[in-house]
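DM from R.C. (forwarded with permission)

"hey, sorry to bug you on a friday — could you get me a structure for this? deadline for the figure draft is monday and I only need the backbone to look sensible"
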Amino acid sequence: MTYLADNFSNILHFFLQGGLFMYPLIACSVVSVAVIILRGFALRRNTVIPPGIARGIEELQPVDDADAVVKLARSVRGDQSALGRIVQTGLQNLQWPKTENIQAVETRARHEIVHLEAGLVVLEIVVGISPLLGLLGAVSGLRNVFGTFAATTSINDPRGIAGGISEALTTTIAGLAIAIPSLIAYSYFSKKIETMAAEIESLISELLAKCYYQKKRHQGLHAPASEVEELL
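My reply, with the result:
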């Protein structure tokens, strides 16, 4: 218990040393942690690309009858995942020419990617401003230290200026400590979104290729396509 109390006291003393600029840095750290946690939950692969829908697309055979498409439509009905909403868009527009349907799917996919990237701009801002706030706090602290040292501290005693410089650099340490994990999280999430976007693109291309192959082969997809539209 004493150990925890001592650590808390040291942390509190560290933040108090930073002065006024520690408050926006603390705010940056809270925002960064909140965004990292929320994006971590939102960008889970099973949440973005449900295994059941992906498996349904992969198991759909070009030579199947059109009822397989209706079955897939039932499985994605009401699904709120990124893949589910994009699949719904593609299946709703099977009566359209393939080129027009692809354009509609691409528009929906761009919207879903923007939704997945929500919050990353906040991390990007935190990465940019945290070191700058730390540097600003250090420069402001050094100005006060040198002003006080010139007025009151003996030049034969360097301990006063050394202690002041140490305090002034506190904000720099805090700024870097916030920016580094935020940058790691931003890079990780950006790469994860890029990877999932490529996988979604592959699955949707496969789905449309199979559906329009059936339409061309059998010319019998029109009635089931109407049923798909009713389902979705």
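R.C.: lifesaver. Residues 19-231 form one domain.
me: no worries. The CA atoms of residues 56 and 72 lie 7 Å apart.
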